[in-house]
Write a structure and sequence with these properties.
Blueprint: E1 37-38, H1 39-49, H2 52-65, H3 68-73, E2 98-101, H4 107-115, H5 134-143, H6 148-162, E3 172-174, H7 177-192, E4 204-208, H8 225-228, H9 236-243, E5 247-252, E6 272-273, E7 276-280, H10 286-293, E8 299-304, H11 310-316, E9 319-322, E10 342-347, H12 350-360, E11 377-380, E12 392-396, H13 397-400, H14 405-422, E13 425-429, H15 434-457, H16 467-477, H17 481-502, E14 507-511, E15 529-530, H18 532-539, H19 543-547, E16 552-559, E17 565-571, H20 577-591
Parallel strand pairs: 4-5, 4-8, 12-13, 12-14
Antiparallel strand pairs: 1-15, 2-11, 3-5, 6-7, 8-10, 9-10, 9-16, 14-17, 16-17
Length: 608
């Protein structure tokens, strides 16, 4: 269909772009024309899409109407392709607010180093709601007022209760009561002997069903993937947690094949938001965010290929940390998006995200020629009295404001508070071509997913997947080599633009999502849901973290008029996790007194 092709955008050379707030760069709002579909309508659309000739025509117009051809495929730009967003490690001067972790330490020793960075405070009586932390569990176990086995028994009971008719939260795809209790019994004996492995010993941690964790199959939220890709051993990040004594409590629910932002899954049920069970928890790490929100675990692991940790974290009112590309080993994670997917951490508090970040960091293979050493691991000293001074936060006005009024006002208030309390300045900038980056990321993640699944799809019965996934796989398979190469050129261009932005400020600040959690409709149960308008609003601020491999963190800062959580996101330079975590901790300190208890919440630690 070359005769129908659009004329592509001609992009300015990066050194000619004005990144000031007075720039003439035009912010393009997402122009998503696809209507919402589910149920019978979705089935009919899929039937047409999978017909050879009609499907090809539909796919062409889907790409055209979403500006992929104009902004990506036929765009004119100077940059060569950049295939992997892995930056060489620069041995920068250590910040006073951080400590360097010696290489060669075990995961448990790294956790001990993280513990020494914490400030131990009594529970703040001004807090309206307090989430139990890893240190709360550790102190309770050492006091012998409660044991890991008691906590495990309560957890199993709570999971069964959450799955009962009338509640049906659909937190987990798989959990084994006997395995959980076995781990808890072993941990209890270690405490009785006075020999806990680390502060993570006996702490329940859930694992997204995209990450290998024995003895469970890894389904990826599907009904078929585990049949052709068996789980043979723990993923590297899971091994590290297990070596610290953590109780691995099962595989959390997720959007099927990670191919969506809502967490709606027609096979294992839709994970519901503990703040309002009639609404989505977000995806694709939906179950991991929800179990932390509901108090079943202080921490869970997720995978973030396009905001899949940060989006559900924001919607469920918890912390979501996505480290730099290459920081955490990807070994044992379903390899469906090699250059944009990263293991991430969902936690009730910034403190807990730091502890688990310390545990799972390391063991990453140095696979790329651009990286000749594993980057040094710095972790921040979490002391409110020792907050960083002079922090500059880059804010691109039109992009920042492209969200609901409640989110915009809440995030602007948060920035005002950071200035009043810490003197941190907001620097107005213009980050160009955000929509082009979103579409280039979509081409990239889709192409990688299609290539990864190619040999599995030969054995794939399409009827085993939801309509939304079948549409996604059809679109992914329609991307050409030109589409992919052009997307990588845009990646290189955006990498250079962001380098210039980081020359103007320490971090970039945005809302985490453009809307709060929306309602789950009755027609999604058997087919899933095609809702690209809400999807674009949810993913709007996530792309740079994945496409460019940048570390990012979301922190809960308030609620909308319906009482639904709102998060703010900080995006940093490569390998700057220590600064991001410290910034997140400072933000959390200003907001946690106003945190609210979810409607669905289980207290596993209070003494009976």
């Amino acid at each position: 269909m070359g005769f129908l092709k659009d004329n592509g955008v001609v992009y300015k050379p990066v050194n000619e772009i004005d990144l000031s707030p007075h720039s003439d760069e035009v912010y393009l709002y997402a122009d998503v024309k696809a209507p919402r579909m589910a149920g019978t309508v979705a089935r009919i659309f899929v039937w047409f899409l999978e017909m050879k000739i009609i499907g090809d025509v539909l796919l062409y117009f889907l790409k055209k109407n979403n500006r992929i051809q104009k902004l990506v495929s036929f765009a004119v730009l100077d940059e060569s392709p950049l295939y992997v967003p892995l930056q060489p490690y620069e041995d920068v001067k250590q910040r006073e607010e951080s400590k360097c972790i010696d290489s060669g330490l075990t995961p448990a020793e790294q956790v001990q180093q993280a513990k020494e960075c914490l400030q131990f405070l009594d529970k703040n009586l001004d807090e309206s709601f307090h989430r139990w932390t890893i240190m709360d569990y550790s102190r309770a176990y050492k006091s012998q007022k409660i044991t890991p086995l008691m906590v495990a028994e309560r957890l199993v009971s709570a999971v069964m209760q959450s799955s009962a008719p009338g509640t049906d939260m659909s937190f987990f795809i798989n959990y084994e009561s006997r395995d959980i209790l076995k781990q808890a019994t072993e941990s209890t004996l270690r405490y009785e002997r006075g020999e806990p492995i680390s502060i993570l010993d006996g702490v329940p941690i859930a694992i997204k069903d995209e990450i290998d964790c024995m003895p469970y199959p890894t389904t990826g939220g599907s009904k078929w993937l585990h049949k052709v890709r068996p789980c043979k051993e723990d993923a590297c990040c899971v091994k590290r947690l297990r070596s610290c004594g953590a109780i691995l409590v099962g595989k959390t629910n997720m959007h099927e094949l990670g191919a969506g932002t809502s967490g709606i899954n027609p096979h294992y049920g839709t994970t519901r938001n503990p703040y309002d069970p009639n609404r989505i928890s977000g995806g694709s790490s939906s179950g991991s965010a929800a179990v932390v929100c509901a108090g079943l675990c202080p921490v869970a692991l997720g995978v973030d290929g396009g905001g899949s940790v940060r989006m559900p974290a924001a919607l469920c009112g918890v912390v979501g940390l996505k480290p730099s590309f290459g920081r955490i080993s990807y070994s044992g994670v379903i390899p469906w998006n090699w250059t944009v997917g990263m293991v991430g951490i969902l936690a009730g508090t910034v403190e807990d995200s730091l502890i688990v970040y310390a545990a799972v960091s390391g063991g990453a293979e140095t696979q790329q020629p651009t990286m000749n050493q594993q980057p040094k691991l710095y972790i921040p000293l979490l002391k409110p009295s020792n907050q960083m001074s002079g922090i500059k936060l880059a804010k691109s006005k039109e992009w920042f404001n492209d969200c609901s009024d409640d989110i915009r006002i809440c995030c602007l208030t948060a920035l005002d508070n950071l200035y009043k309390c810490y003197g941190w300045q907001t620097v107005e900038v213009t980050i160009p071509d955000i929509e082009a980056m979103r579409l280039a990321h979509y081409v990239t993640i889709g192409s990688e997913c299609s290539a990864s699944f190619a040999h599995y799809l030969e054995k794939f019965d399409k009827s085993e997947s939801g309509s939304d996934v079948r549409v996604a796989l059809s679109v992914y398979g329609a991307f050409s080599s030109r589409d992919y190469l052009q997307a990588q050129r845009i990646r290189n261009r955006q990498m250079k633009i962001h380098e210039k932005i980081f020359g103007m400020a320490d971090v970039i600040v945005t809302p985490t999502v453009g809307i709060t959690a929306y309602e789950i409709k009755d027609d999604v149960k058997k087919t899933g849901e095609l809702d690209y308008v809400n999807g674009a609003s949810l993913i709007r601020y996530s792309i740079a973290g994945n496409f460019l491999g940048l570390p990012a963190v979301t922190v809960p800062i308030g609620y909308d008029k319906l009482g639904l959580p709102i998060g703010i996101q900080f995006i940093g330079k490569h390998w700057s996790e220590d600064m991001l975590i410290q910034i997140a901790y400072a933000m959390e300190a200003l907001c946690k007194a106003e945190y609210k208890k979810p409607k669905v919440y289980y207290d596993l630690l209070t003494e009976i």
